[in-house]
Amino acid sequence: MLGALRGDRREVVRCAIGTVILIAATVVAAMSAAGLVDASSLTTAVVTVLAGSAVTLGFAVGPPVTASIDPLDPRRFAVVGPEPRPLAGALLLAGFLSVPVLVVLVLGVSLAIAWGAHGASAWASVASVILGLATCVLFARVSMALGALVQRPRQSRELIGVYLVAVLVVVVPVGVFLGSLEWRGAVPSQLASAAEILAWTPIGAAWGIALAPSAGAAVGSFVVALATVAVLALAWFALVNVLLTTTRRPIAVRERGGLGWFAVLPGTPGGAVAARSLSYWLRDRRYIVNVVIVPIAAVVSTVPLLVAGVPFELAVLLPVPIMALFFGWLPHNDLAYDSTALWMHIASGMRGAPDRIGRLVPVLLIGIPILAVTLPLAIVAHGRWAIFPAMVGVCAALFLAGLGLSSISSVVAPYAVSRPGDSPFQQPQRTGSGGVVAQGLVMVGSIIAASPALWLTWQAINGETDDTMVALWAGIGAGIVVLAVGVAVGAALFERRGTRLMEFAEAT
Length: 508
Hints:
Elements: H1 9-34, H2 41-66, H3 84-94, H4 99-117, H5 122-150, H6 157-180, H7 189-198, H8 215-245, H9 253-257, H10 261-264, H11 269-283, H12 285-300, H13 302-307, H14 312-315, H15 319-329, H16 334-338, H17 343-347, H18 352-382, H19 388-412, H20 434-461, H21 468-496, H22 498-507
């Protein structure tokens, strides 16, 4: 802890200022937590579970996002030849002596005061604080150990961009959901339900023990929290053993900064295809134009419906499923965009599965965040959060089924597109109708795969809210099945049609 106050003066000043700000924020948060004595028992329980879950999740995702350097990295002790188990135990105990953990301890004690005022027993409060602290420390230890195994010595812009996108996908929907609730001086029922669910998850179980609504719920949260600590402890001991018995490959200075996505993704055939595809999708204007047009076309499609008299609360639900359909449709002719670069895949003897899966990575990385941000906004405009699970099922079915069918279409029926460097709006002449048929079949197949979820969602919109969860799992299940089958079939066809694909690339 004191080592952070040594070294470069600017770093020391920044660390000192951050510590002062953290202390001030901790004091304010602790006073607010203790002030829950005057709140209702339900309010205190909901605030405890939601805030505790957020803090615990922060300990898990904070180290990779902030690129934190672990001062207790087990590999630092490898020079003295320690035994893995004693070292893992010592480092785990030392993990409790950190500023973030002390902050959580102060907040936990402040919450325990409020719990006691609402009738929580002493053992439940002590168990909640101890298990909460242990879960936070173990999540941080395991997260840093995993980062030490897979993370590069210096984070690249691409990796930071992925982290920011992941944060955006989580923060925006949650913020929209909280902002849409009707508080009216009481805890909304949606938040109470969310807290009840989180109390049975690894990140929130420890914080749901003290003020559980029943003895059975308290025992259940305690068991989940204890099991989480046990699993994380086993994972930590195993990771320490791996870190002490493996040697990192030395990385040259040039390799760290100049390879872009190739330095971030795994050095496997699928990782290479994904890295090259990501470079194309984020730089080639032919891809960029396709991505930009999808949201615009989806929003514009609602105008004729509004003009025709369709109610606004129904028309506003249409753009997101349309975007999901088109995002799944985008890679239906992905091989044609490679042009003659396709020879690298075929000449290297690449199997079909890495090619098919790697080409889907850019679409997933672009489509999922856009859908995750726009769907909650559409639900807010619609006004009924009860249909949110059903809409998730519809979008998942359209998106995943489209990706699966596109994996087949791009191999079976590729058609000529504008060459690299040409205008994306310049389309070559085509002698046949195979391209049109392939596009239509992918879209029609995606809609057919999503038809059960679409029907159940329509029932939910008309008042049958019991069908929302059925629509969710029906959509996700159908999408995953079509995606898996499509990738498998596309992979087999890619290996059989390699010669024809090269002929197509050379001819067009």
